[in-house]
Amino acid sequence: MNETARQLIDALKDGNHLQEKDFLQIMTHAGAEDAEYAKSCANALRIANFGQAIFLRGLVEFTNYCKNDCLYCGIRRSNKDVVRYRLTKEQILDCLVQGYAAGLRTLVLQGGEDAFFTDERMCDIVSSVKSRRPDIAITLSLGERSKESYRRLKEAGADRYLLRHETATEWHYAKLHPSFQKFSNRMQCLEWLKELGYQVGCGMMIGSPFQTAECLASDLAFIQDFRPQMVGLGPFIPHQATPFAKEPAGSVETTLLMLSLVRLTLPKVLLPSTTALATLHPQGRLRGILAGANVIMPNLSPVDLRDNYTLYDHKANTGLEAVEGVAMLDKELSTIGCHVVVDRGDALY
Ligand code: 5AD
Q1: Which of 21, 95, 276, 331 could be cross-linked to 234 through a Cys-Cys bond (beta carbons 3.0 to 4.6 Å apart)?
Q2: pTM
Q3: How do strand 137-141 and strand 106-111 relate by DSSP bridges?
Q4: Of 238, 235, 341, 218, the residue nearest 287 (C-alpha)
Q5: How far is the C-alpha of 147 from the C-alpha of 264, rounded, in Å?
Q6: What is the rounded distance in angstroms from the CA atom of residue 25 to the CA atom of residue 18?
Q7: Which residues of the chain, if any, have pLDDT below 50?
Q8: For ligand 1, what atom is nearest to the CA of residue 249?
């Protein structure tokens, strides 16, 4: 047990603001026992705020066209091996109807940065979803757009927006992205989304190439200051057709520790146990929940297209992470005393 790490975890648990150097102390000093302690405190906080309810989000990967070239991502524009696809509005609405029937009350529309989906087309999709099922929440995950675009999408009915910041360290951002993709613009987008009244999600991969303990400390300090309503984080997993093909995957243990620290920093945050975590460890999804996560995002995309939306290798696609598996998922969750709920699962702040 490390005295310093333990004291800082306690300080966080008691609602104190930590400095970036404190987060760094935790990242560099916490041993296995301290990590277990952080997880148990985070799990207790999850239960105090949400009981044993796990919120579901139906994920629709509606386009894998992307103009960006993120070095880690399987659907980057330089990857010529991908079969590109776009769903039609009708296909998206079919996903909605299916997901709704399975009890999902949040639809996450996620895609690459695809110029085909203009504001006009996106707003039409958003308002059609809302008129078809008014009690559903819409989360968009479409990358960087203009403030005006975000404003129009919000007016059309979008409730939430996910835009992982990927790393809060500018030099690190530059190692993960080509120079035309700017750290400053990504951060600006997050500010705009917040100003416009979206429930906003940021996040990062754990163990991405060049990431240091300092990077993770700066991510935690950023999350503490920015106070997003949602945080998406999972391990980096190499994709064979990217420049990072030979890089090692992120660690499951560090991912779990980071989930716990995010829960301790923002007790009411909506925090998914991600597919990437489930991909690296058979118990990954449950372990994520026991480390403080309270959201699961089943895949609602048409089954025959799922293999084309491959951001990283060996992506879990076995049933539990998919909508066909909601009942199975509920059963799996019952082994740790949790259950899925039919609820929009809105932010508490
Ligand atoms: N490993 C893990 N996560 C990845 N993402 C993209 N590529 C990978 C990868 N190789 C994550 C990014 C992005 C989100 C949609 O998926 O953080 O924001």
Answers
A1: 276
A2: 0.97
A3: parallel
A4: 235
A5: 31
A6: 11
A7: none
A8: 1
